[in-house]
Amino acid sequence: MKLELVCGDITAAVAGQVDAIVNAANSTLLGGGGVDGAIHRAGGPEILAACREIRTNRWPQGLPAGQAVSTTAGKLACRWVIHTVGPVFSAENDQQEILRSCYLNSLAVADVLGATAVAFPLISAGVYRWPKSDAIAQAFKAISGADTQVQRVLLVLFDIATLRLAQSLLPPQA
Ligand code: APR
Predict the structure, then answer these.
(1) In what order do the strands lie in the sheet with 80-85?
(2) How sure is the predictor about 156, in pLDDT bands with cuts at 50, 70 and 90?
(3) What is the Rg, in whole angstroms, of the alpha carbon atoms belonging to the chain?
């Protein structure tokens, strides 16, 4: 699998390059700010309608952190949005495994869909306050160790400083 780093808005920077875009959602699946807000704004109401249906029929209590589900991408230039819920950073308890599960479960959903190219934002590194360097490290660890049919993963960093940090932490790729 090829892991590439991209800088920009995930709703535009990878248009036409991926089958699925991953959303850094919250458990309600009913939208929010950051990536979540951008995806719902750009993708349109179809995405929220599909999220409501998932809440009603599969996750009435909300999507637990680490889990992933897929919906239509609405007006976005890809086929699906994969919604995952990152853990909120806590210095007291280590939730690195849950954060890695966001990537692993999103890739597992991509495999079920038949998506071979997937774009991720840096899960939990915004509102959920995860330190960027460790958010990047967990993303790399999960993605590089994943048993998946996905051939191309784009990690989309929202600003140049975060892109540079990711570039400095990227392990040499085989
Ligand atoms: N494209 C790419 N990356 C983005 C975008 C965007 N349009 N907007 C924000 N980011 C970056 C942030 O800078 C951060 O590095 O994505 C990373 C994740 O930030 P958030 O979107 O805040 O996601 P998260 O930290 O997982 O918090 C999720 O925030 O938006 C709400 O509804 C969401 O409650 C949920 C929580």
Answers:
(1) 2-7, 152-157, 117-120, 20-25, 80-85, 68-72
(2) very high
(3) 15
